Every structure is written in C-alpha cells, then in structure tokens.
Amino acid sequence: MTDFPDTIAPLTISTGPAVARGYAELTQDYNPIHLDEEFARSTAFGRPIAHGTMALNLVVEAVTRAAGGAFYIADLDIRFTAPTYVGQTLTAVATRQSGAEYVLETSADDGRVVLKGTARLAMRVSE
Amino acid sequence: MKHFPFGPDIAPLGRADEKGNRVTHITTDDLWTFDRFKAGQSFGAVEVALDSRRIKGWQAVYGQICGDVAPDGLIVAGMMEAYILAIQPRPKGNVHAAQKLDFTGVQAALGDVITYQVSVAKAEEKKGRFWVTFTITAAHNSKVLMQGDIVSIWAA
Question: How far is CA B18 from CA A81, B14, B79, B151, in A?
Fold first, then answer.
C-alpha cells in the first residue's frame, strides 16, 4: 500500500491552565497532579503536568485531520517519555517508516519529547 | 450521592448521574489501592454520550470538528472518562505511563452513546512501583470501535 503520506502534518496546541482545566472537564480527570499547584509541588514533577492523553490525542487528531476520512490509526503503542508542564506548547508529528507503519512523536516547546511510539494506519473501507 | 474532592460524583448503580452518564458499575467507599487490583477483574460498563458538552470540550482543545462523525480522539477522551468514573475513589497522583490503542475502523456519530467496559489486565509491583494495566473496550450498538490498554503507575 503506497497511499499513505510520508509525513503527517504537525499539529500544535497550547496546554495553559485553562486548557488543562477544560481537558479535565472533558475526561472527568481531576487528578490534582494536573490542576493543583500545591499538590504538584509535593510530587517528583514539582509543578502541574498536562494530562498524558492530551498529547496522545494531539497525535491522533493530527492523523485524523491528515486522513480526511481516507485512513485511520489501526493500532498504536506509545510511552509517555517525559512530563508536559502545564503552560507548554505541544507539537505532534508522525513519520512513515515503511508501508503503513509510522513513528509518532509529540514534543514540548523546550525540545523534550514527551510521547514516543509507533502506529499502523489502515485505509477506511466504504460501507 | 458521594462527592470526592478532586473527582466526579458517582451515581448509584443503574442510575444516571447529573451529566447523563448511566453508570452500571458498583461503587465503593474504599479507596482503590494497588493491592485490590487483580488480573481479570471487571469494573463493569460506563456509558458516555458524545453530547454537546463533550463536543464543545473537545473543540476547545483541538479545534472544530468537521462533519458529524466523532473523531477517534473523542473516543479516546471517552475512554479516559470511563476509566476515571469506573474506578473511584482513587489515590491522588497516579501517573499514566503508556498506552496502546486498537481501532477497528467502525466509527461513531456525534450524539451517539458509547459503552466502555473497564477491566484490569495486569497488576504487578516492580522496583517498588505499582504498575497496573487496564483494558477498556469502547462499543456502540454492540460494535467495537476501539480497545485501549492504559498502563498506570498507581500511587498507593
């Protein structure tokens, strides 16, 4: 299959406190590690970190937008490799390795890779 | 109705909560600590409606949804909501370490109600950390949309 693009166009979001609160409301994940500065200071992170799936969904959404309905992520396997501190900007990219296999990466604006993994895309079949 | 300082209220079994979710799992007053998790344990089903509140919430972070098909990421967001709702109360400070997702290609429409089944796949202590893998399956009208494995480092 050669119909998959070599790269998925990067997608960027900001993760400020209002976005973190909004994502908490969306997912009902009010873990204080994301929202409570005082609590976060008591953890190894030292300050609030963004929800992991905010970075994950950024790369999922990047693929969805690039696909325009033509393909989708059949499977994905990622690790959260570093924390995203609330307030940072995230950028997700996906690069094709071969066939339908992609390397996924989401980076914070300080250059750290916060999510890394692989995905396999598949073409949508019209019903 | 219980209230948790950092979490949602959980409706009694079989009743809808104030957000319209029909929670069909059994809730407990006891904190879900690592020692209570066992492989194969089920937390039942949580229904999540892809309603206007969630659509607006998604769009506030990721931008406009084009058309009436739910983006795959919205199903992932629902997975997290189901995971949070199904296992309460939970300790503060759990860390989401890794994630696997398998999409079937079946899609849902905005407005659909997605049923998420939540269970424990694996629970093990390694180097003093409590690793728990939860498997969550999302379905609509009995068709599976997605399965996800959430790998968490449980805080207590």
Answer: 36, 13, 19, 29
Chain A positions in Cβ-Cβ contact with residue B99 (cut-off 8 Å): 52-53, 56, 76-78, 80
How many Å apart are CA A65 and CA B27, to the nearest integer?
A: 38
Which CATH superfamily does the domain covering B2-154 fall into?
A: Hotdog Thioesterase (3.10.129.10)
Amino acid identity, position A92 = A
The structural domains of chain B, with segments of one domain joined by +, span 2-154
Q: Write the residue in A57, A75, A125 that is nearest to B77 by C-beta.
A: A57
Q: Rg of the Cα trace of chain A?
A: 16
SS3 content of chain B, % helix, strand, coil (to 5): 20, 40, 45
* Closest chain B C-alpha to A48 CA, distance in angstroms: 11
SS3 B43: strand
Question: Distance between CA B148 and CA B146 in Å, rounded?
Answer: 7
DSSP assignment of A37-102 equals HHHHHTSTT-S-B--HHHHHHHHHHHHHHHHTTSEEEEEEEEEE-SPPBTT-EEEEEEEEEETTEE
- DSSP letters for B90-154: --TT-EEEEEEEEE-S---BTT-EEEEEEEEEEEEEETTEEEEEEEEEEEETTEEEEEEEEEEEE
Are residues B112 and B56 in contact, defined by beta-carbon separation less than 8 angstroms? no
Q: How confident is the model over A75-110, as pLDDT tens digits?
A: 999 999 999 999 999 999 999 999 999 999 999 999
Which residues of chain B make contact with A125, given a CB cutoff of 8 A?
105
A26 neighbors B56 (Cβ within 8 angstroms): no
What's the pTM value of the predicted model, to 2 decimals?
0.89
Q: What was the pLDDT predicted at B23?
A: 54
**What ipTM did this prediction achieve?**
0.94
Rounded Cα distance between A94 and A105, Å, is: 6
